[in-house]
Structures are given as structure tokens and as C-alpha cells.
Amino acid sequence: MVHLRRKILSFGNLINQLQQNVRWSSSLKTKDKNSVQPQRSFKYADLTVCLADLHQLNPKPDVKELLFGKYFTDHMLKIHYYESMNGWQAPEIMPFGNIVLHPAAKVFHYAIELFEGMKAYRGVDNKIRLFRPELNMERMNNSAMRIGLPSFRGEELIKCICRLITIDQEWVPHSTASSLYIRPTFIGIDPTLGVVASDAALLYVIMSPVGSYFHATKQPGISLLADPRYTRSWPGGCGSSKVGSNYGPTIPAQQLASEKGLHQVLWLYGEDHEITEIGAMNVFIVYINDNGERELLTPPLNGLILPGIVRNSLLSMARQWNQFRVSERSITMKEITRLLSENRLLEIFGAGTAGIISPVSCVEFLGQKLHIPTTEQSEPIYQMLKKHLLDIQYGVIPEHPWSLVIE
């Protein structure tokens, strides 16, 4: 640890060093015409760094004992925004610590808050990688626009995050079964009551070494509760934005699932019981279509579901392979039960940054437990996709346009 600290302190210019060391992926240079393009933003070049004292450094947990979101690294990133002070302020990396806010801060009263979920992976070559971070930045800006928070240039935040990872690099687990979870968070801190856009905001980033999202279980897959009484999102709502108000109200349904001995909630919408998401993951289904072919199916981006980075990646991978049909359309529980009765439903799995790819073994719907044979297939598609995804993230495929390598 002392050696690492001396190495960090020996950097000549903390601001310019990362610019030289980080090799940006080609995908980061591609601009989406539909993405939010801010007129003003904070800049990585203005970043200041204050390192924690040795006595402030925390012991690192054993990789075998990692629980999701329990441990946090030694440093954090903070960037303030004040409309009255020309907008974005200079980014700061500082020792991890509590945040002090005014009791009237808008985040407390009107849920003006959003967040992202990213991971840093230590590869088999010991290099640390981010996975398609430009897509997280695009989604974060879209979420900010949805709740009236200011936009920013995603590449500038990525550079700041890379610097934060460089400082806390030993918190990235030396394991291909674990990773460093990165939580960018953006909150309204204007100390005034009233449902209007916040003139002050705080963007901060904290990091946590994590293992599996789900606790160890004897079951080969996760089990789900599909209860039509609970709805996660609706047309015209903010289900497609990663805002905190999407998640707090889901807790009662999740508690009910836990009481029944089930892992997660399969979220439904409408009288037809349209499937939308699994917990906080996108949902995928594999079935035999009317032409006798295997088909990978996921709900479309119709405003009811989150545009997941892993979702996007799995669809791209599957279409490139061209080994089975790939489609995006709505699917209902009625169709699920019919496919099961006809022995045409092969797999259901969830996909997301936290849960990676999680096969489903059981769905409880209207008092009936439906057995899903996901893990019983001889060559399941979910395993093929998961292996290829992890090979990219952990550097088994060393050069890939979706990987941002931090040298």
C-alpha cells in the first residue's frame, strides 16, 4: 500500500498523466446524433486531487467475502453545479466521506436524483478495463434531462472516473469472479422547497468491490414472482430513465417475493400482463418459434424498460453470430404459459451490469409455479452470451472496441 501511494504521489502532473496513459476505445469517439450534447461542461483538465492519509485507508476485504455494495474504496469524485456561479465547477477527487446537505435539498423532497451502474474489471492480463462507458454517459445525460438536471460531456466524466480508478486501483479485485462496481450519482441540492428544476446539483462517484449480486443458492437459477398487482413503469412515465424514484416503490413487491422464498420480481404491465423487466435487469426469452427455429426475444425500448448496456451488447453479439433469430417485441404471460404447455419455451434470463446474466428456473404467477427449463438445455444461449461477454470484460479477448483499457 505504501509503495502504491508513493507511486501515485510521484506522478509529475496528476491532471495530464491519465491523458497519456488511457487508450480510448474507438466506440468512445463515435457521437450519437440523438444523444444529449451539452453547451457547457466540467473539464477533466480542471480536476484536483487530494489523497487520503495513510491512517484513512481502509483494509481491503477478502475477495471470497465480498457482498454487493457493502465495502467502499478510499476515495470519491465530486463535481458541483451552481446556476448562479456559471454552472459546472471543477471536479475534485478526495477521501471517501459523508456528504452534508441542506434539509430542504430537492433530492430529499422531490426525488431529483439519478444514478448509473458501471464496473471496472481486472483482466486475465492484469489490465483494468471499463465496458462501454460511453453508453452509461449517454444514458446518464438522458436521465438528467428527464428530471431537469444539467447535462455534461460524457468523455470528461469518463476521464475523471479513470483517474479515480487509477488512485484506488488495488480495490479492483484480482479475480475474474469479482469486479469494482462504480456508482455515478447525480442529485439536486438546491435548498428551496417547490417542484421546479434544481439550480444547484452534485454529481459524485463512489466505488465498491463486489462479488455475485445474488446470494449463493442451491437452486441452479433464480426464481421470480409475477404479480399483476404491482407495476414498475407505465407509458409516459420514467421507466426508461435510471432515476431513484423507479426503485424505491418496488421494495414492497420485492419483500413479498422474499417472503415467498423467491429471488426477484418479474415486472408486468397492463391487462395483458406484458413482461417488462426482471428486478432491475432486462429480460430475455429463448423459445422455438412457429418456423421451428430457436429465437432470442426481448421487449422493445417502448418507454417501459431501461435501455441496458448489457441488453444492447447481447443483442449486438447475437445478431453478429447469426446462429438463431433475434427479435424485439412485446411478450405476455399468456404467451409464456402457452409456450410452456407446448414445450417450446427454452430459456428465460435477466441481464444487467450488477447481475450480469442470471438464468431463471421458476416463475410464480397467479398462484401457479411455472417451471422454466433454462438450465436444463444442452447448449443454452444464455451461457454462450455470458461467456463471450465475460471474455470481453476480463480481457480473454484482449483487443475489443467495447473495452476501455486503463494502462
TrEMBL record:
The family database entries (InterPro entries) matched by this protein are listed as: Aminotrans_IV, Aminotrans_IV_CS, Aminotransferase-like, B_amino_transII, BCAT-like_C, BCAT-like_N, BCAT_family
- Specify the protein name: Branched-chain-amino-acid aminotransferase
What Enzyme Commission number(s) appear in the record?
2.6.1.42
What are the BP-aspect GO terms? L-leucine biosynthetic process; L-valine biosynthetic process
Residues recorded with modification N6-(pyridoxal phosphate)lysine: 242
PROSITE patterns linked to this entry: AA_TRANSFER_CLASS_4
Q: What CDD domains would the database entry show? A: BCAT_beta_family
Give the family per the record: Belongs to the class-IV pyridoxal-phosphate-dependent aminotransferase family.
Any coiled-coil ranges, and where? none
